[in-house]
């Protein structure tokens, strides 16, 4: 695409909406349960259905994009997730709600990893991380602001309005994408899911980067999930104010995405070390402070640290598998998703036996250690590149 900034803006906006669609309705489970005459735990099955479908189909869409072209898959996924988001607003019982949300998650899985793969192949080495970080920043800004957007829409209407609004907005952007994005060429001639994953799964250096992403998801999403509860507990603010404070995590990802390439060039191997320090201090601040302004600053720093770390790992993962970027991103996204799910589940048990502060203390330690390990791995990759022996396999 000639105008790459326009491509980034369109893809970033779709990622913003799709990720927001995922997070916006989760705090409204109580309203959904009351409307459909369900218990809260039963209504929450719709969230589980979305995430399970998202996780499974993430592994499918990467190889599909390598075989049929990334733009084609993104267009199909965007239209599909928009349609089923709208249909979710018309759910009339539990089976219909679970089906619509599962289908929404399945198509949503075709947006995130494939979008980052398309961005990765569209930019050269000098500009790739900056472009990826911009899209990721908008993606996670969408998730972080979803609470306040969903809360506001539900306040003036109902939980159904949340699904409907996101679905309509997604459909509009999907139509723009259909007319604007230029089709890319497939990179493989045949679709073979098992063969597609054989190469990356047998590549030790590639897989250790992907496993590192698992622990990023574990520490970041496993703790961020409970940030709303933490802030509401220590401040007593209502849902809308809590959502506004949480959105600073997303603002941090956007700001961090803009400054990451220049800082990485300047700090070199110390760049990821700085991410670990910023992230560790931010999470410890959330564990020990109760002042709303300090918590807001901590969330902002948390977002910066996350995007520093994740955009660097994603960029390196794509460089390690340049001929199958879609497949590489599927594995990376799957590990981030599974890591977040495992972290969320373990931290749920921690809350039952301890305090919220324990979650953020342990996450601070894990994020710092992961940053150190990532710095080591990526410094080795940089040495290989300088020596002219960088391995694609």
Q: How many independent structural domains?
A: 2
Multimerization state: single chain
Strand portion:
under 5%
- Determine the number of helices (DSSP H or I, runs of at least 4 residues): 18
H/E order of the elements? HHHHHHHHHHHHHHHHHH
CATH class of the largest domain: Mainly Alpha
SS-derived structural category: mainly alpha
What does this structure look like?
The protein is mostly helical. The chain folds into 2 domains: 1-178, Up-down Bundle (Growth Hormone, Chain: A); 202-393, Growth Hormone, Chain: A. Helix content is 83%, strand content 0%. The protein has 18 helices and no strands. The chain has helices spanning 4-24, 29-35, 40-43, 45-68, 70-88, 94-108, 112-122, 128-144, 146-156, 159-180, 193-201, 204-224, 227-235, 239-267, 270-288, 292-320, 325-353, 356-386. α15 (270-288) packs antiparallel against α16 (292-320). The protein is globular, with a radius of gyration of 20 Å.
Key descriptive features of the protein:
393 residues; Growth Hormone, Chain: A; 18 helices; 0% strand
Topology (SSEs and partners):
Blueprint: H1 4-24, H2 29-35, H3 40-43, H4 45-68, H5 70-88, H6 94-108, H7 112-122, H8 128-144, H9 146-156, H10 159-180, H11 193-201, H12 204-224, H13 227-235, H14 239-267, H15 270-288, H16 292-320, H17 325-353, H18 356-386
């Amino acid at each position: 695409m000639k105008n790459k900034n326009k491509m980034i803006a369109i893809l970033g906006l779709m990622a913003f909406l799709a990720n927001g669609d995922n997070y916006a309705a989760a705090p409204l489970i109580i309203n959904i349960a009351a409307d459909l005459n369900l218990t809260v735990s039963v209504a929450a099955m719709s969230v589980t259905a979305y995430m399970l479908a998202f996780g499974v189909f993430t592994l499918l869409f990467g190889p599909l994009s390598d075989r049929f072209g990334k733009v084609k898959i993104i267009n199909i996924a965007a239209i599909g997730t928009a349609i089923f988001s709208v249909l979710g607003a018309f759910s009339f019982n539990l089976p219909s709600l679970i089906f619509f949300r599962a289908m929404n998650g399945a198509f949503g899985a075709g947006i995130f990893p494939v979008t980052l793969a398309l961005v990765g192949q569209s930019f050269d080495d000098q500009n790739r991380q900056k472009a990826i970080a911009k899209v990721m920043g908008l993606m996670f800004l969408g998730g972080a602001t979803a609470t306040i957007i969903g809360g506001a829409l539900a306040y003036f209407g109902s939980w159904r309005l949340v699904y409907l609004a996101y679905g309509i907005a997604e459909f509009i952007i999907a139509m723009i994408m259909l007319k604007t994005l230029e089709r890319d060429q497939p990179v493989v001639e045949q679709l073979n899911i098992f063969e597609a994953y054989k190469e990356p799964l047998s590549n030790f250096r590639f897989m250790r980067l992907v496993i590192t992403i698992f622990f990023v998801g574990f520490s970041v999403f496993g703790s961020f999930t409970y940030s709303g509860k933490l802030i509401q507990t220590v401040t007593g603010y209502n849902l809308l104010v809590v959502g506004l404070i949480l959105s600073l995590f997303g603002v941090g990802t956007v700001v961090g995405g803009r400054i990451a390439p220049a800082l990485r060039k300047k700090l070199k191997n110390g760049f990821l070390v700085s991410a670990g320090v910023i992230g560790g201090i931010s999470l410890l601040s959330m564990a020990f402070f109760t002042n709303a302004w300090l918590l807001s600053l901590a969330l902002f720093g948390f977002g910066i640290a996350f995007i520093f770390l994740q955009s660097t790992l994603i960029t390196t993962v794509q460089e390690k598998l340049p001929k199958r970027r879609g497949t590489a991103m599927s594995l990376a996204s799957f590990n981030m998703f599974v890591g977040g799910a495992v972290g969320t589940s373990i931290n749920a048990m921690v809350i039952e036996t301890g305090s919220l502060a324990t979650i953020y203390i342990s996450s601070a330690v894990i994020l710092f250690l992961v940053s150190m390990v990532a710095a080591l791995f990526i410094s080795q990759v940089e040495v290989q590149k300088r020596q002219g022996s960088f391995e694609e396999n």
